[in-house]
Amino acid sequence: MMKKMKYTKKLFKHKNPYDLEGTDALFVQAMRENAVFQYQNCADYRRILDEFDFCPEKIGSMEDLVRLPFLPTLYFKHHHLQSVPPGKQLIKATSSGTRGSMSKIGFDFHTLSLGLDMVIRVGKYHRLWSATPVNYIIFGYQPTAGNQTAVSKTAYGFTFFAPALSRTFALEMTDSGYKLSWDKVLRAFERCSVSRFPLRTMGFPSYTYFLLKEMESRGLAYSMPKGSMVAVGGGWKQFYSQQVDKHEFYRLVKKILDIDEENVIEFFGAVEHPILYTDCSHHHFHVPIYSRVIIRNPDDFSPLENGKPGLVNLLTPMIQGAPLLSIMTDDLGILHSEKCPCQTASPWLEIVGRVGISDIITCAAGAEKYLKE
């Protein structure tokens, strides 16, 4: 029998999505509520907590959450854990695009309703919602019934922040698989530049940058309508060595599309931690109330004080279908507590690198072969 998550629901109904101080106690209650549910409904997770002699019913403080055993994202790429019957998993999402081991996560109605509350509030806070129709260009995969990657679902979901006049996907499905429809993207840019409605793009920052850089080399540039936006998410992944300074990225967006830096938005998240991190006007990923971030020492996993780099440990009580309360990512990051000029009160997370684990193949991995083709 499914248990109602009253504290978790209350947390996701909180009006201010960045009021961490005002929701600390509620967050702990929600984490205890979810941990108990996972312990009772997932035998594998129960064995893990028992091995660490950790009792979820005794969670009563943030210090207890620091001691809550974390699971690395790599673990979910090789082990499929679930706490909700498959029949109640309305949406299934995977972490990889075309190759490699994949995390497979199922989302039930409860989790999806929490996600909707989160998206509504975060989208409103960052002024992503608009009643003005928009032309969308997605630097990513066209959604198909056989593509369950979280990145394709997220990109498609982005097109609902404003009514869609059109959706153009850089990677289109053909009889022989996905192909980069470069000419179609160029035609879409040209069409959007003479439209009276705004353009919104979405995609990996690396993929977006490479395509805009190619346009620059061809001498192509457009002036997009007022209110246009470039959105990126997913990080640079295996293109990390080719990552450019953000200001160089903003310069290129302005030169090629005539879109100002203030209208370049970045998202951060993962299928194992589907919380919507959206950068502020100063491009900082403030931690929303739906999660907490612990930066850990790579040597002994002890928590580090704010301002010091370490492994990024993400916590959330959102997911009911799998024990994703505390996951260890393959990101290196810094949690900043200094005051941000945007006036958002919560600390902000800076991603500074990735752990060099060759076994980890991410959802952007397939982009490389399409670019070469």
Sheet/helix structural class: alpha/beta
Percent strand: 15-25%
- Helical proportion, percent range: 25-40%
Mean pLDDT: 89
Can you walk me through this structure?
32% of the residues lie in helices and 24% in strands. A 7-stranded mixed sheet has the order 6-5-4-7-8-9-10, sandwiched between helices. A hairpin with a 2-residue loop joins strand 5 (164-174) and strand 6 (177-180). Helix 2 (20-41) crosses helix 3 (43-51) and helix 9 (205-217) packs across helix 10 (246-257). 46% of the residues are buried. The radius of gyration is 20 Å and the shape is globular. It has 11 helices and 15 strands. The protein has helices spanning 6-13, 20-41, 43-51, 62-67, 73-76, 109-125, 150-158, 182-193, 205-217, 246-257, 367-372, and strands at 71-72, 89-94, 104-108, 134-141, 164-174, 177-180, 199-203, 229-233, 264-270, 273-278, 285-286, 292-296, 310-315, 326-336, 348-354. The chain starts with 5 loop residues before the first helix and ends with a helix. With 373 residues, the protein is an alpha/beta fold.
Structural descriptors:
seven-stranded mixed beta sheet, six-stranded mixed beta sheet, 373 residues, alpha/beta, globular, 24% strand, disordered C terminus, 32% helix, 11 helices
TL;DR of this structure?
With 373 residues, this protein is α/β, with parallel strands linked by helices. 32% of the residues lie in helices and 24% in strands.
